Amino acid sequence: MGKVKFLPDTVVNRIAAGEVVEGPSAVVKELIENSLDAGATNIIIEIKSGGKKLISVKDDGVGIEPDDIGKLFKRHTTSKIENLDDLYNIKSLGFRGEALYSIGAVSDVILQSKAKGVPDEGREIHIRGGRNLGEKAITRIEGTTIEVRELFFNTPARKKFLKSDTAEFRKILNVVIPYTIVFFDKKISLIHNGKVTFNFSPATDPILRFCEIVGVKNGYILSGERDVDNKGVVLKVLLGDINLQFPVKNRQYIFVNNRPVYNRNISYIVNSVYEDIFSKDLYPTFAVFIQLSPEDVDVNIHPSKREVKLKDENYILSLLAELCKETFARQTRAKDLSGKGSYSEVIEHINGRKEIPVISEREDRGELFGIEGSIKEGKEDLRAKLKRAFYTGCYKNKYLFFDGGNVLFVIDQHAAHERIRFEILKRQWESGKVDIQRLLTPLIIRVSHEEISVWEEGHKILEGLGFLTTRWDANSIALHGFPQGIKNPEISIRNILAEGSILRYDREEIAKRACKGAVSAGDRINEEEAVYIKNELLKCDTPFTCPHGRPTVIEFSESFFDRQFLR
After folding, report:
1. Helix/strand/coil (H/E/C) assignment for every residue in 29-59
2. What is the fold of 366-567?
3. What does pTM read for this prediction?
4. What CATH fold (topology level) applies to the domain 9-200?
5. Where in the chain is the domain with CATH 3.30.565.10?
6. Per-residue pLDDT tens over the stretch 302-350
7. Phi-psi region of 119 (alpha: psi -120 to 50; beta: other; left: phi over 0)
8. In this predicted model, what pLDDT tens digit does every residue of 399-422 receive, in sequence order?
9. Do 27 and 54 form a contact (C-beta atoms < 8 A)?
10. 341 and 268 in contact (C-beta within 8 Å)?
11. Considering the domain 206-350 in this protein, what is its CATH number?
12. Which of 368, 447, 462 shows the shortest CA–CA distance to 410?
């Protein structure tokens, strides 16, 4: 008797559902896309317990005709394509006919709808675990409401891998936010556990909606557009200027034919424009909108439709690089991609023909403190030598030079100040005696919706660490006090909130993030401040690396310079 068997339909259904419905955020994505495809101008999304108990999406779209209600939860039923050729000319966000079928297979769903222009009453259908529990006529306004409850009630293995309510809700936020940007002319509301997270009214300009989402002034956003008529390509960019620098890449959005997508190459190209003006641990905010002929875009790669393939991608990337440089050059200098790091090299890297150029930290820079130096002479000797060294100047408001007699010491002012502040904070927190700088007037900090969620989860922890904060409004928190020694408390708060969850980090990790608000590369400091940094650094328990592991001091010997000049 053979071992190969046909799987029963119940198993097949749940396997197929697992490819589309990875969690509550995937359900929200599919439902909001259905509402947008239906031409809705007002969409209300209600969530309970991070989507585990309830996901409800209500819209005022064209609705569903009574004869179609019963077909919706059958596999591969859709109104958006009819034949194979349609796969190469997709203009809607959804098209596979798998979303509602998959959602219904692993949850309890009630869908109500009334079609516009149809005199009949509305209809309701109840699906649970893939079974139709009944349909009935109802009285309701035009549009559609779908409620999804008990997600994964019949697939406990999938259910146990769901994260906390807060974590799942943050995923939902990350899914919904891009649609609010690209569909700026829609009214979109999000409610979690009965509390309104946001309620965006239609905007007249995409810049206004983008600034509202990112939480910045519109004067800091540059916009550019390029229309290539003969190629059917339209590019638009919204670029944050040099005033908008963030510790993580969570304010970067890419859209292709109004579809939020992830594209590593597009992200790489845009970020490369900023490399020459941002320090390597800070990132810009931007939105890229690409319109192409549908036949030049393949969205049928993955069930999530998050990734797309573009025809003539290299050509589009070159146009995008030029547009970003031109747009950014209106206000400040952009990175020159014509020489080293040119567009041609970028393309070669993207196509896998060249490795990303990486310069070794030890390459051609002398002896690292705490590595070769400590082996040769010992830590105390190095401390003593640096202590005796006198200040001679700085370079690029970034590196401080100290003459140690037969050696030259170079201190990274940002890394050194980070180490100093980190150890001060750590000692205060360990002793329970935090010196707090209280503000006469609170500092109002605008944050993203995801960061508000992180703050709500961990503001008590922040208070114990010396950051006194309260909720100001829907998009802002008020800072009333902060640990003394923090140079820029706003940057410190943003760095902490940007990590996604305060609860999963210990105090040392939080201190590392808080100390990113130390003296920055590019800050002008005088001789007295430079000597202070050197002396305070020598008091640290671990003076020769910053909290993130980068060196704070490099020692150059006379013999090193002799070798460079072939002496």
Report:
1. HHHHHHHHHCCCCEEEEEEEHHHCCEEEEEE
2. formyl-coa transferase, domain 3 (3.30.1540)
3. 0.67
4. Heat Shock Protein 90 (3.30.565)
5. 9-200
6. 555 567 788 888 899 999 999 998 887 665 544 444 444 444 444 444 4
7. alpha
8. 999 998 888 999 998 888 888 888
9. no
10. no
11. 3.30.230.10
12. 368
